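Annex B, item 7. Sequence and structure tokens for protein A, then protein B.
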Amino acid sequence: MRSKPLQRGKGFKRPQLPPRERPKLFPVKQSVGQVAVMRRADEAANEVRPVPKQPREENPRYRAMAAGKPCLLRVPGVCNGDWSTTVLAHSNSLSDNKGKGMKAHDHAGVWACFGCHFWLDQDKTPTREERRERFSAAMVEMRRQIEVIAASGRPRDREAAQWALARMGG
């Protein structure tokens, strides 16, 4: 039981905390247009150097081509074989421009069903090496499929396939 009734307008006030200090070697990344600026707390010189960002190479038609295609990852025990769930699964490799909060280029992807795409991106059971091996094998098959489409596919698909081959280095 309260000794006196509650009063209106006397809400909780947040205590003022002192500002946090950053560690000396903690890089702060700020995005400035298409240039990321890295600040390094060096003892001798506190300089700011621009690091250019590589813009993501996208092609909506190339991504849409995956619909109805066979899964290329084919993870045993995971692949559902349902071609209606096939999408373009992007690479998780830094060499393909993958980064924190950044998806890899569209040409660095393979066709994967829902189960295999989940296995590649979110499943905790496979090791990094297993994922890399499976993705590399699928990428070889993907390149073969794209070369076939570039040679004799529908005009819009052919154009998207040629776009991807030019960026894959072929």
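Protein B:
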Amino acid sequence: MSSALRRAIQRPADGPADVAERCEMCGLAVPVEHRHVLDVRHGEPRCVCQACALLFERDAAAEGRYRLIPGRRLRVPEFVAADLGVPVGLAFFVRQPGGGVVAHYPSPAGATRWEVEAAAWEAVEGTCPPVREMLPGVQALLVNTARGRREHWLVPIDDCYRLVALIRREWRGLSGGSEVWPAIDGFFADLDE
């Protein structure tokens, strides 16, 4: 019997109260605050324990199936987001490992995607140097120009997934209802911490 299978079978039904999930690499319990890796094949984040995160950090330059999602958040200088063809005030942009940039905007049905024109992206990189350093697949440029806001962030991709989940959970009716916008404001306030 493999060690991973043995751990799965021997895993207790109830874990400690501060354990949110299990490491999706080794099966150990992970605390509420933990790191993630991106499963490149499926485009999904996976929870990892500190030991597994350190292994992936060591191999950060490797082009394997899993890539460690960085934890750094950085507010970047403002630029004209409309130049990227954003039809809404809240969107995130991800550089693809094979080239090109895909834009996503969160909605109550999930994230809608479209390809960003290469010339438009190059113009943003020219006016906003931190964007040039964005890691493919695991970091995103998050833009919030909704409701008079002017926020531009370089964030881990798992933050964007959290934002999509928050919008799906809080959205009510056609306009979003009274809960969604305070929740979005709270999300961006947390980025500042």
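Comment on protein B: The chain has six helices and eleven strands.
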